[in-house]
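Table 4 source record.
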Amino acid sequence: MRSALAAAPPFVALRRERITVRRHKLGERDWTLLRAFVGRLTPEDVRRRFGAPLALDDEGTLRRAFEVEAGAGEIAWLADEEAAIAGIVQRVMVSPSEAELGLIVRPDRHRAGIGEFLLRDLQQRAARQGLKTLCATVLRDNRAMLRLALKLGYVPRQESAWMVELALALEAIAAARSGDERDEPWD
């Protein structure tokens, strides 16, 4: 009989040096890491992230879902202790001052703080780069993402039967950082 502790996933050190950020087309090594990551996702994880089922085992679909166009956004991921991707956050510019984000964490790493860590890191980068607003469209049944976004200060901007559009004004983050050049508030 395995104990609950033995069944728990290994701890992922939530340190900034484990984050990789790309703002340009991904290289083949990046795609290899992404293929391994999506291979560990459940269909429900994919539906909750993208709002519909996607066949991420199809190369074209995978590239449409995760490719980064220079100047149009970024993708960042946190590596685990085996250098595999544990979670991904994406940012796509929708105007010169606003970007939409998406977040997905491997199911064996849920509830480990990875999503919050990646979102806080993204928010700080966006504030430093002068963005005014981050937004996210979240399925109503994605309770974990809704709770996390509300915890971080996102507010509902628009709602429908299936989705909630959330927004975060970045001025407060930028103001809190003034005079503080550290990359991590939790150092």
